[in-house]
Backbone:
């Protein structure tokens, strides 16, 4: 029995090794390390403690002053962040052949430049928390939002990742936002630029593309897509404005899709549920789908009844 199993395993190993030699991209062997996804998620947890010092604490540290606590948190974060940035810099065309000293020096510059952005991140997060509390009657207190709202977590991760993205750090920002995507169902590319007082209500199924620009006091619901009009151009579209611009004080209800780099939603506009928009919307407009039809079927007498109605102000629902 054991001998037969060993033979089968050896046969599979030989098969796999032969397949690995086929030159597939997924077989690529590089001369430098790959980023550690688990370590990057741990870095997010460390940064969460720094951004929300009153909510998230490292129970392993026994400290008695705020200064000592933040010093230890920072040292721990810097140690791991530096290592991951050193690794991912090798993916940048300017550093593929760079020596270790150059890599280490640049990683240090990037790490500290990013950490200097934390007060700005906290400033924006404070407004996001206020927007969530003001905008959701189901929120009893702000602690509930910080600890349990998926939208709040997705926004926090995006604001962290966006700062790394703007500094030109490869891979790490996307790993961070895809982690948030996996745990919240909210997919925000780290390249998206988002203003203050951003509120995601419910959140599941939201997609926000890389070149999206979102103004202040914007509120979006579950299932909203801020996407590209077409991606058939493939790599030729890289670095081009492909996603919409959303003005200040805009509300976008569930299931709406707003597509295209030239599409601008003017300030104070309201986009109704399930709208599909590929052209700009002027400021103050209220956009909805007209002539909805409801179909009622009755099993008792096998009859069917259709009811059509024109959309009026009542169609703009509030969740």
Residues:
């Amino acid at each position: 029995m054991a001998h037969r199993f060993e033979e089968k395993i050896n046969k599979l190993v030989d098969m796999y090794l032969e397949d690995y030699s086929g030159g597939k991209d997924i077989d690529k062997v590089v001369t430098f390390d790959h980023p550690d996804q688990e370590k990057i998620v741990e870095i997010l947890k460390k940064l969460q403690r720094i951004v929300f010092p009153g909510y998230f604490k490292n129970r392993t540290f026994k400290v008695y002053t705020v200064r000592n606590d933040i010093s230890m948190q920072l040292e721990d974060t810097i140690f791991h962040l530096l290592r991951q940035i050193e690794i991912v810099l090798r993916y940048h065309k300017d550093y593929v052949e760079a020596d270790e000293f150059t890599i280490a020096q640049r990683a240090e510059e990037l790490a500290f430049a990013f950490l200097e952005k934390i007060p700005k991140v906290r400033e924006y997060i404070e407004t996001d928390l206020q927007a969530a509390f003001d905008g959701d009657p189901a929120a009893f207190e702000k602690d509930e939002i910080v600890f349990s709202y998926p939208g709040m977590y997705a926004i926090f991760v995006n604001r962290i990742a966006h700062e790394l993205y703007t500094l030109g750090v490869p891979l790490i920002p996307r790993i961070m936002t895809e982690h948030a995507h996996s745990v919240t169902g909210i997919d925000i590319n780290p390249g998206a630029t988002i203003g203050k007082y951003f509120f995601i209500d419910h959140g599941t199924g939201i997609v926000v593309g890389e070149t999206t620009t979102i103004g202040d006091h914007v509120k979006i619901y579950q299932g909203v897509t801020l996407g590209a009009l077409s991606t058939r151009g493939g790599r030729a579209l890289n670095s081009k404005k492909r996603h919409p611009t959303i003005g200040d004080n805009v509300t976008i209800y569930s299931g709406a899709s707003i597509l295209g780099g030239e599409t601008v939603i003017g300030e104070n506009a309201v986009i109704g549920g399930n709208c599909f928009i590929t052209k700009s919307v002027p400021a103050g407009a209220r956009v909805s789908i007209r002539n909805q039809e409801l179909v009622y079927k009755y099993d008792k007498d096998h009859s069917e009844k259709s009811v059509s109605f024109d959309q009026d102000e009542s169609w703009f629902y509030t969740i």
In short: DSSP finds eight helices and 16 strands in the chain. Helices lie at 2-20, 37-51, 66-89, 100-115, 118-135, 142-148, 150-166, 172-184.
